[in-house]
Amino acid sequence: MPLIPTALLCLVASIRSKRMQAARDANPAESTIIEKMKSSGGRMKKKAFLNAFREWTRNDRDKERFRYLIKKLLTRADDAIEGEVLVLKSFYS
């Protein structure tokens, strides 16, 4: 198995970081969700997450946009202790 040079790994990480920063700048709602999830360790109970963003689900248009962002940024996991939790996808963490 060939070893990947460290310089190449750093370049890939730099490109990924710039791409993620551009995505955050383009959509402030995405960055808000990402920062909230990162501040809670990358996972939150579903109910706590929905309570934190309750104002985003007031009308139908915002609710659809919110659902799209959840599907794009988060995955659902069942935890034996916590129950249903939302986890930030590894690409964004």
Kindly describe this structure.
The protein is of the alpha+beta class and 93 residues long. It has a domain at 28-88. It has helices at 6-26, 28-39, 46-52, 60-73; strands at 43-45, 74-79, 83-88. A three-stranded antiparallel β-sheet has the order 1-3-2. α1 (6-26) packs across α2 (28-39). The longest helix has 21 residues, at 6-26. It is globular and about 50 Å long. The protein starts with 5 loop residues before the first helix and ends in a 5-residue tail after the last strand.
Quick recap:
This protein is an alpha+beta fold.
**Strand element count:** 3
Number of helices: 4
Mean pLDDT value: 81
Structural class: alpha+beta
Return residue spans where pLDDT drops below 50 for at least 5 consecutive residues.
Answer: none
Helix fraction, binned, reads 55-70%
| β-strand amount | 15-25%
3D shape: globular
- End-to-end Cα distance: 28 Å
Please trace the helix and strand order, writing H or E for each element: HHEHHEE
Largest sheet: 3 strands, antiparallel
Over all CA atoms, what is the radius of gyration? 16 Å
What's the arrangement of strands in the largest beta sheet? 1-3-2
